[in-house]
Structures are given as structure tokens and as C-alpha cells.
Amino acid sequence: MADKIAVEGLNAWFGKTQALHDIDMAVPENSITAIIGPSGCGKSTFIRCINRMHEEIRGAYSNGRVILDGEDVYGSGVDPVLIRRRLGMVFQKPNPFPTMSIKENVVAGIILNRRLGRHEIEETAEKYLRRAALWDEVKDQLNRPGVSLSGGQQQRLCIARALAVEPEVLLADEPASALDPISTAKIEDLFTDLKERYTIVVVTHNMQQAARISDRTAFFLSGHLIEYGTTDKIFTNPSDKRTEDYITGRFG
Amino acid sequence: MKTDFRYIRRKVFGTVMLGLSLLAALAAVSMLFWILGYTFIKGISAVNLDFFTKLPTPVGVPGGGLANSIAGSIIVVGMAGLMAIPVGIATAIYLSEYGRGVFASTVRFVSDVLAGVPAIVAGIVAYALVVTRMHRFSAFSGSVSLALLMLPIIIRSSEEIFRTVPDTLREASFALGVPKWKTILSIVLKTASGGLVTGTILAVARVGGEAAPLLFTSFSNSFWNFNPGQPMATLPVDLFNYSISPYQDWQQKAWAAALVLVGMVLLLNISARLYLARKGFKR
Predict the structure, then answer these.
(1) Which of B168, B182, B282 sits opposite A112 (nearest CB)?
(2) Quick check: A237 and A69 in contact, CB under 8 A?
(3) Quick check: A48 and A173 in contact, CB under 8 A?
(4) What confidence score (pLDDT) does residue B282 get?
(5) Cβ separation of A98 and B169 shorter than 8 Å?
(6) CB count in 10 Å sphere of residue B116
(7) Is the pTM of this model over 0.90?
(8) Residues 165-224 of B with CB under 8 A from A
(9) What is the mean pLDDT of residues A148-161?
(10) What is the pLDDT at residue A21?
(11) How many Cβ atoms from other residues are within 10 Å of residue B132's Cβ?
(12) How far apart are CA A112 and CA A162, in angstroms?
């Protein structure tokens, strides 16, 4: 498989604190890559560097290269606003827009950037609610507020909203950590379906989850990429002692 | 037992302190009700349809009302709002969404100082800036002085409201590839709209009762006037003029004006609360 994203020599800081040290990592196309590691190891910072959300935090900056289909995301003349449309993101806590209905939430990324006819809105909303496996549950209440849904449904609504912008990559920052097991299972199934169309990078605290859904796994520790390989290899025969200690639950 | 004694002592001390603080709260509230009640009793007899529909009559002529100054108050405060609300909200957007560093903290500090400026000083400034240049008193100059008073209230309350909009919503919008200015207009402003309306209504209510800055800006007028370039009657100024007059009839009108003024402020406050309750905090 071709590499969709290639990260080269990535360093990131919050003020004077360095959060990522010299990360090199390639993410193959149409796969799920899991990022695991203890709290504060730089997992979230890493995926936020991929779509240039890291720099939105006050005092945060980074250097290095993130190559998306041969083009450096940090290259001169690259507009972070436009690059983010190619790299969709789902956050830890579901964050639908509270002033918008379910339908409006799905198309929010589109209507905030260009006009959309009424008919187009209906069509687009249905298409992506179906893709996020939420359509059957909400098709009779499309005009109710997005925040009226349950936590798990809100998270799938946010996935639908991210997909509606037609990104090539979906970055997910612990998307199921605030959800119950049934909702979590739905999100996991959804990701497995979505990898046919998208390249997915998912940060997770849950190692079973990483083992269940991902093709490749990266283990981060204190801002360093310790080990990266196929999920099979990482979970059955890790080459680094620290990886083994972490996945067997000896620390973290 | 020793422990029992301590327990009883704490319990008694707690009860006494609770009683004292209740008493203090009661004293504070009773003052408010006393003011409201006294104004009501003194003023209600002069509040009738004529009061809202007729012009003032000369001394000694019975009847008449303060229709012109009720309308004048609405016009002067309304024009002040037109000046202060857009500038205030725009400043708040700058402070909460962009403001970093020395300039922003200077703006914040200045608006805090401006909030503490006595109303009569705002009047003097408007007098110097507008009245001396136009060579006459005018409703417009009154609005300028009230706008000066409203501005810091709107800036600070709006900034607080913008800060209650969760950052996760801004992030969600950025991550969808929405530019920052569009995020502010479509997400932040919309999410904050309930609180903004409430804060603005309260700012209007706060300056609506000011008389001091209007005494030498919008002045007074015994007739209908809808020209902002001319002196205009307002309720607080008429209240002042009538209450210091030696005529019983005018003093009676002053009480009525006080009652109507308090009623209007109360109405604004209640409508702000109702609006907030209906809109609710959705998050």
C-alpha cells in the first residue's frame, strides 16, 4: 500500500516544553493506524500536528515535515484552513454545534464555506448520516438540535460532519473514550467500514480497541515514538522492552 | 463528654451566624422594597392615561403629562445603544478571540476604568465634545454621554459571554476547514447570542435612569421634539426638575415620573431574565 502520510523529523512544543521529539512515521493509505501510549505521551499532539491544529493553541509550535500525498502540509504557501478540509478530525468529547439541528450539523463544514440549496442540504445530510451509520436512528428527527442526541449518537454525528467536508484522512482523538461499550462498538465497526474510503489515524487509551480495529500500531512514550509496526507484531512480539511493559500492563 | 460540648458549641455558633447573615440579607432586600413601595404609593395617584399621552402644562394649569419625555428617554437611550452596542460587541470579540499581549490588556484596563467613571463626568465630556461645538444642547449629545457609560458595561459583559463559549466548538469549526473570521461570526456569535442580548438589555437599563449626564447635554424641553439636534426632554431630567420645583402639582408629577422610570427599568430587567430562561444555556 502507498503511504498517504509521511511524517519526517517532527518536533512540537508547548512554550518551552517539548512535547514531541523527532518523530518519523509513515501511514499507509486505506488503513487504520492506532496511536497508543500513557497519558501525556504526545499522542494527541501528534495527530493535531498532522492537520495543523496544534498551532491554534496559544504558545504552541512545531517543526519538521508532514507529507500528505507528496505535498508538505507545512510547506510555504500552504493555507492551514484548506489543508484541514483534507484532514478531517473527530475529538474526544462529542462537540456538535449547539445552535444547529442534526441536519445543519452534518452540513456545517460545507455551508460555512459556500451556499447550499435546500435540496442539496437534504441529500448531503442523508448521505453522510448513512455513512456514519446514524441515519436509521435520526431520520425522523433531523430538525431537532444536535445536542439532543445521546453521547454515542453525537459522536457519530460529529463523524458525519467531518466526512461531509470530503476529507481523505480521518484523524480521531480518543473518539470513544467518553462513550459506553455499545456506542464504542458502533464507532469501532464504523471505522472498520470507513477505511475502504479513508485513511484513519486513531489515538486510543484502550489497547483492546487498538488490537481490534487497527492495522498498524505506534507506541509513544514521553514524546518519543518507541515502536511502530503492524498491530500483530506490536501486540504479540514487540521488539522494545518498554512496549512490552506497556501492553502487558506493567505501567501506564 | 468533651467532644459533645465542642459539637454543641459549633452547632450554636453556626446557627447564630446563619441568623445574622439572614438578617443582613433581609435588611438589604427590605430597603429595595421600601424604595419600590414608597415610590409606588407616592406616584400611583398621578399615573394615568394623560401622563403617557399629554404634554406638560404650565404651572397652575391642572392635567397634562410627560408623554414627550417618555418618548425622549426612549430616543436618547436608543441612539446611545446604536452607538455603544456595535462598538462594544466588536471590542469584546477582539478581546476574547484575538486579544493577546499589551494592547489587549490596555484596552481591558481602560474599559475597567471607564466603567468606574462617574456619570456626571461622562456628561462633561459629551458637553465639551458635542455641546460646545454645536453651540446648543441636543439629544445627540445626551446619547453620546450615555453611550460612554454603556460602552464599558457592554464590553466586559460580552467578553465574559464569549469566554463561556467552549473552545471545543471553535476547534470543531477550525477542524472542518472553516476560517477564523467565519467561525467567530457563525459559531461563536450565534452560540453567545442569548447572553449578548441579556447583557445588552441590562446595560440599557443601567443607563436609562441616568439624569446627571443629561442635565447639560440633552437638557430639557416642554414640547414635542424629534430632532436629535435639539434639546429633548427625558424622564430622569424631568424628574429632577419637577422634584426641586416649589409647586405641589409638579412634585406630584416627579413621583409619577419616578414610578414610571422604575417600572421601565424593572421591565427591562425582567425581560432580560425571561429571554435568558426561554433561550436557556444549551450546554
Answers:
(1) B182
(2) no
(3) yes
(4) 43
(5) yes
(6) 8
(7) no
(8) 166, 168-169, 171-179, 182-183, 186-187, 190-191, 193
(9) 94
(10) 95
(11) 10
(12) 13
- Residue-level length of chain A: 252
Q: How far is CA B15 from CA B21, B24, B25, in A?
A: 10, 14, 15
Q: Where are the domains of chain B?
A: 2-46, 50-279
Provide the terminal-to-terminal Cα distance of chain A, rounded to the nearest Å.
32
> Which DSSP state fits B230?
S
Tell me the pLDDT tens digit for each residue of A197-251: 999 999 998 889 999 999 999 999 999 999 999 999 999 999 999 999 998 887 7
3-state helix, strand and coil shares in percent for chain A, rounded to the nearest 5: 40, 25, 35
Query: How far is Cα B268 from Cα B264, in angstroms, rounded to an integer?
Result: 6
> In this structure, what C-alpha cell is assigned to residue B71?
418618548
* Terminal Cα distance for chain B, rounded: 51
Q: pLDDT-derived band of residue B283, with 50, 70 and 90 as boundaries?
A: very low
- The cell numbers describing B220, all together, are 430639557
CB A44 within 8 A of CB A203: yes
Domain A3-95+171-247 has CATH 3.40.50.300: yes
Take residue B282 and report the three cell numbers written for it.
444549551
In B, which residues are within 8 Å of A146 by CB distance? none
Grid cell for residue A242:
518498554
* CA separation for the pair B185, B3 (Å, rounded): 62
Cβ-Cβ contacts under 8 Å, A56 against chain B: 171, 174
Q: Tell me the pLDDT tens digit for each residue of B40-94.
A: 999 998 888 888 998 888 887 888 889 999 999 999 999 999 999 999 999 999 9
Q: Do A58 and B100 touch (CB under 8 A)?
A: yes
Per the CB < 8 A criterion, the answer to whether A146 and A97 are in contact is: yes
B-chain residues within 8 Å CB-CB of A85?
176-177
Domain B50-279, second-level architecture: Orthogonal Bundle (1.10)
Q: Residue A94 has what DSSP assignment?
A: -
> What cell was used for A204?
486510543
